[in-house]
């Protein structure tokens, strides 16, 4: 897989958006928790605590910082 180093940042971004009050989906949470445990030997507890009670609007500045470690911005410009 090309750009595998981006995967952790992308998965984390999806995880924290999913944990916001208005977007929580238990199936997505379980799949992401599984991915972090299997791929990185890590759990998601600290991410979940950091997101507790936050809205998507509140968490997006942090997500944008995570995505700076990827080529996501370039991708978004390409698809416009």
TrEMBL record:
Protein name, as recorded: Uncharacterized protein
Origin species: Candidatus Borkfalkia avicola
